[in-house]
Amino acid sequence: MAAPSVLMVCLGNICRSPMAEGILKRKARDSSLVIFVDSAGTSNWHQDELPDERAMAEMQLHDIDISNQRSRPFKTADFDKFDHILVMDSSNKANVLSLARNAKDEAKVHMILDFGSEKKGLSVPDPYYDDGFNHVYELLDYACDAFLDTLK
Ligand code: 4NP
């Protein structure tokens, strides 16, 4: 069977989803799991930009380099390319679902914090304005562990 594929989605694709991409890639590697992981934004506001400096610095604290990533917008073709589309908040979810063509597309979309028992239904807060990058890291670290458990 083909390796599972996962797309992390936030608004700008410079803070939360690049961090989620980096964390899941690291965890998959550490568990010897082959997974294709990418990320995208529901906006094109930062297209081709590096992740936010603060996101890169937080990830460096955890020895994860995300400086190879570049922002890109989510597109309808992503529903064909990815098995799992994990969004950070309810606004991301509504924006992604507005591009879904059918129930199969819709079924791929999940709030990332719905994985694990602690934070179901909640959003990963946008750290762009309030600098909460460490909190975002902790939330994503927990959720990525719980998501990986569903693949094992
Ligand atoms: P992200 O954060 O969605 O986690 O990448 C944001 C990045 C940029 C903006 C908002 C949120 N912005 O308004 O430019």
CATH architecture: 3-Layer(aba) Sandwich
Round the Cα radius of gyration to an integer and report it: 14 Å
What number is the mean pLDDT? 97
CATH class: Alpha Beta
Reading side by side through the largest sheet, how are the strands ordered? Answer: 2-1-3-4
The H-level CATH homologous superfamily, spelled out, is Response regulator
- Identify the overall geometry: globular
Q: Estimate percent helicity.
A: 25-40%
Describe the structure in brief:
This protein has 152 residues and is α/β, with parallel strands linked by helices.
Task: Sum up the structure in keywords.
152 residues; alpha/beta; Rossmann fold; 4-stranded parallel β-sheet; 6 helices; 4 strands; 39% helix; 12% strand; globular; binds 4-nitrophenyl phosphate
Characterization of this structure:
The chain has helices at residues 16-30, 53-61, 78-81, 90-97, 103-107, 133-151; strands at residues 5-10, 36-41, 84-87, 109-111. The protein is of the alpha/beta class and 152 residues long. It has a 4-stranded parallel β-sheet with strand order 2-1-3-4, sandwiched between helices. Helix 1 (16-30) links the parallel strand 1 (5-10) and strand 2 (36-41). Helix 1 (16-30) packs across helix 6 (133-151). The two termini are 14 Å apart. Bound molecules: 4-nitrophenyl phosphate. The site of 4-nitrophenyl phosphate has 10 residues, from loops. 4-nitrophenyl phosphate binds next to loops.
